[in-house]
Amino acid sequence: MQLKAQRCLGSNAFRSQIVRGGGTLAISAAAVTVGPASAPDDSANKMDSGTPTPRRAPTNAEFGGPGRHTTDTLMALNVMCFALQWLTKDKLTYLGWKVNALITAGQVWRLLTPAFLHASITHLGFNMYALHNLGPQLEVLSGGPRFTAIYLTSAVVSCGASYLFCKAPSLGASGKPPQAPLGHAGGMLGGAVLALLLGPRFLRQPDGSIVDRPPVSLLSHRTVRAAPTQAPQKRSPEQTAAKHKGSKKPAPGTGVDSPAS
User: Fold this and answer.
1) What is the pLDDT of residues 197-224, one digit of tens each?
2) Continuous segment of H or E residues that includes residue 129
3) Apex 165 CA angle, 182 and 71, nearest 5
4) Whole-angstrom Cα distance, residue 216 to residue 196?
5) Which of these, 197, 77, 69, 203, lies nearest to 139 by C-alpha position?
6) Of 101, 97, 122, residue with least CA distance to 109
7) Cys bridge to 225: 20, 165, 210, 216, which one at CB 3.0-4.6 A?
8) Helix, strand or coil for residue 212?
9) How confident is the model at residue 171, as a pLDDT?
């Protein structure tokens, strides 16, 4: 076996394979070491120059977007109320949740405050997720004041439905099963009726403009889109030549407009 191995190592073919393999490995190592030519990194120069990197403006799908100020305010108010519930050890909860006997006694604010109170972090997270996704769309379509009116009216109608059909104390204007769907249905119905009255109801005018004409135009948009301006029509070469021909004055001495001699 040793003799065969020595013969193999001594053969020219095996030596050539070793040389070729070693050359391939050397070339590969050089390629890895050197690598392809890359563009110089200017990040360090930008940081040293002190030029601030422009920040991307938030969209309406993100918190702080330009068209969702009312939505963000309502979300912050809900989160703040939940934090106060925890800090006061549910004292705020007892002051604001829906209790039918206290509402009958005159504490009518309990028809609104339960909409801003939540029983758990899961309850808060689910409601804020829905408000975060649906609120900006309604706000952009309806406008901030109209969206606020629809939101608060839905809350009151929902608490009212819970007051009528659910005798137990509740948070979030929902009540306990099986009365919980009645509270949600009441809020949805109240919001739909108010949206039908307040709009928006967009109509296209004969001049091409779009206006908002709901049945109750208290919070409607004045003009959604103005009438399009008509671009000046381009004249054909024949019309241009005819205009220049008609505006030419006769040359002096031709006798057309010259006084009689």
Assistant:
1) 888 888 888 888 888 888 888 887 766 6
2) helix 121-142
3) 45
4) 9
5) 69
6) 97
7) 210
8) strand
9) 82
